[in-house]
Design goal:
Layout: H1 10-40, H2 42-45, H3 53-61, E1 70-75, H4 80-93, E2 98-101, E3 113-115, E4 118-119, H5 122-139, H6 145-160, E5 164-168, E6 185-188, H7 196-199, H8 203-210, E7 220-222, H9 228-237, E8 242-244, H10 255-273, H11 294-301, E9 309-313, E10 323-327, H12 333-346, E11 352-356, H13 364-378, H14 384-389, E12 391-393, H15 404-410, E13 415-416, E14 419-420, E15 425-426, H16 430-443, E16 449-453, H17 459-465, H18 475-484, H19 489-504
Parallel strand pairs: 1-5, 1-6, 2-5, 6-7, 7-8, 10-16, 11-12, 11-16, 12-15
Antiparallel strand pairs: 2-3, 3-4, 9-10, 13-14
Helix pairs in contact: 1-5, 1-18, 3-6, 4-10, 4-11, 5-6, 12-13, 16-17
């Protein structure tokens, strides 16, 4: 009889386990990157078809996970991400297991899907995406990037057994992939001119798209700037109780005050739903928001990352003074107006230097006019050439990012006080732009505040340039995302028109 090999000592066994775990993590990361690369390229190879049919088929194929939890559905031009963040945090701190679905992400795809503030893991992304790709292929469902991502979120939330999900729309509302749900509460934050090629060229047209999330008998909370007539029409048509957050003076200066008021009212309405509803149903007790908790009230006042996020930056091992930096995703004229008001309120005696990049589909000319006004107001009498040096233009590393040539071409023919508008300083990379602004601020006798704004697609690289540590996808994966993630608005606009015609026939 052969002798059994001696058992390895515990140290060797532990080392083997550690090595095995490291290999497993590496394998998971490789699979995660492979599957995300495939996801990012979906819109490149599939025809774009706006509508709810794909999502309805996917959701049915997986056993209707979207119905396994209560939902707060949030739409709006500005503020929807912040309101979603606040409501989710308030529910979480009240003891409710809460899912949060938001877009786009700043540095890591996994930011889009969270439970109680914890990002979905790489392995959970792999498992869900593999299942969705398989089912989509079997049933021949040409699901888009956002439809697949929304389905991934529903599957994760159902598996995690959440009590409630705060669900942010991706684009518009009526045809958005999130709009297959029957929520406990709908929220529409604000309406402004954005994505006009898809949603319409008037406030009323865009409001009608956003109001598409209003459901029969489901209460809806609207922000003070949402067009009341349109919202009342949709609410009446659906027998949906309508609550409007009243306008307050501080809303003109700070989106956060407005977003906090909307989020607070949403939580009030959730608590009201805890009472008996028509038909005798109840909202689960866990969805009550505890307004007596300091932690809950702090959550409602909090800001998500890159929403007027104030940092004080100093280089490691440096004796140079700190530079105050503000990160804000403001990207359209309305948002820049609010950003300007808050800058003047928070830093009344400071001067400002901007690092800006834009998506190609934005009203770049109008946004830059407003940014120039902010700089001019704090540098009265300064020559235009000096003003130019205080605004650093960079290209957002994203398919929708406007190139420096496109930005300056958009300014051609416009004027300031009847004079041809100057070209702004153009810098090739976001890091170079941030570094240049920091250096100029340190060298200035004015103690300038550096403001980074114009697009969410700037924020990951800007935060890295400032030394912030956070989960971030690999450079290779982000390169694929930049190349393939965004569907051109021309294709989406055509798809929207096609969906409109189909709905009318």
């Amino acid at each position: 009889m052969s002798q059994r090999p001696a058992r390895r000592n515990s140290v060797g066994a532990a080392a083997d386990r550690e090595e095995s775990a490291e290999k497993q993590v590496a394998a998971t990361t490789a699979t995660y990157e492979m599957l995300l690369q495939r996801l990012y390229q979906v819109n490149r190879f599939s025809a774009v078809k706006l509508g709810l049919e794909n999502m309805q088929k996917l959701n049915a194929a997986f056993g209707d996970p979207a119905s396994q939890f209560e939902i707060v559905h949030v739409a709006g031009t500005n503020g929807k991400g912040s309101v979603s963040f606040k409501v989710a945090k308030a529910l979480e701190r009240s003891g409710c297991k809460t899912g949060l679905f938001v877009s786009p992400h700043v540095a890591c795809f996994r930011e889009r899907v969270q439970v109680n503030g914890k990002l979905i893991s790489e392995s959970e992304v792999c498992e869900a995406l593999s299942e969705i790709f398989n089912i989509s292929a079997q049933l021949r469902i040409p699901a888009t990037f956002f439809e697949i991502t929304t389905m991934l979120a529903f599957l994760h939330f159902a598996k995690q057994g959440v009590d409630c999900v705060v669900l942010e729309t991706g684009l518009g509302g009526r045809l958005d992939s999130t709009n297959i749900v029957n929520p406990a509460l709908s929220v529409i934050t604000s309406i402004g001119l954005d994505h006009t090629r898809i949603l319409g060229i008037t406030i009323e047209a865009i409001a009608r798209e956003k109001a598409g999330i209003v459901k029969p008998n489901v209460p809806v909370v609207i922000g003070p700037n949402a067009p009341v007539n349109v919202m009342m029409e949709f609410a009446a048509r659906n027998n949906a109780p309508l609550v409007r957050v009243p306008l307050q003076a501080d809303f003109e200066e700070d989106y956060n005050a407005e977003n906090t008021a909307i989020a607070r009212e949403a939580c009030v309405q959730l608590n009201a739903l805890h009472a008996v509803q028509p038909g005798g149903t109840r909202i689960p007790k866990g969805l009550c928001v505890d307004f007596s908790s300091k932690s809950v009230n702090a959550a409602l006042e909090s800001r998500p990352p890159c929403r007027f996020q104030v940092l004080h930056v100093m280089r490691p091992n440096s004796k140079e003074r700190k530079v105050t930096v503000v990160l804000d995703v403001a990207h359209n004229p309305q948002a820049i107006d609010k950003l300007a008001g808050l800058l003047h309120k928070r830093f009344p005696d400071k001067k400002f230097r901007f690092v800006c990049g834009f998506s190609a589909d934005k009203a770049i000319n109008k946004v830059l006019d407003k940014i120039t006004d902010v700089v001019r107001a704090t540098h009265p009498g300064e020559e235009e050439e000096e003003l130019q040096s205080r605004i650093h233009l960079v290209k957002a590393n994203h398919p929708r990012g406007a190139s420096l040539v496109e930005i300056n071409l958009s300014l051609a023919g416009s004027s300031v006080n009847g004079e041809p508008k100057f070209e702004y300083e153009s810098i090739s990379s976001i890091k170079e732009g941030v570094d240049a602004a920091l250096a100029a601020s340190r060298a200035s006798a004015d103690d300038e505040v550096v403001v980074v704004c114009g697009s969410v697609f700037l924020m990951a690289e800007a935060r890295q340039a400032l030394g912030l540590k956070e989960p971030i996808d690999s450079a290779a994966l982000n390169a694929v995302a930049r190349l393939h993630l965004s569907t051109p608005e021309s294709r989406l606009a055509a798809a929207a028109e096609e969906a409109e015609v189909a709905a009318a026939t």
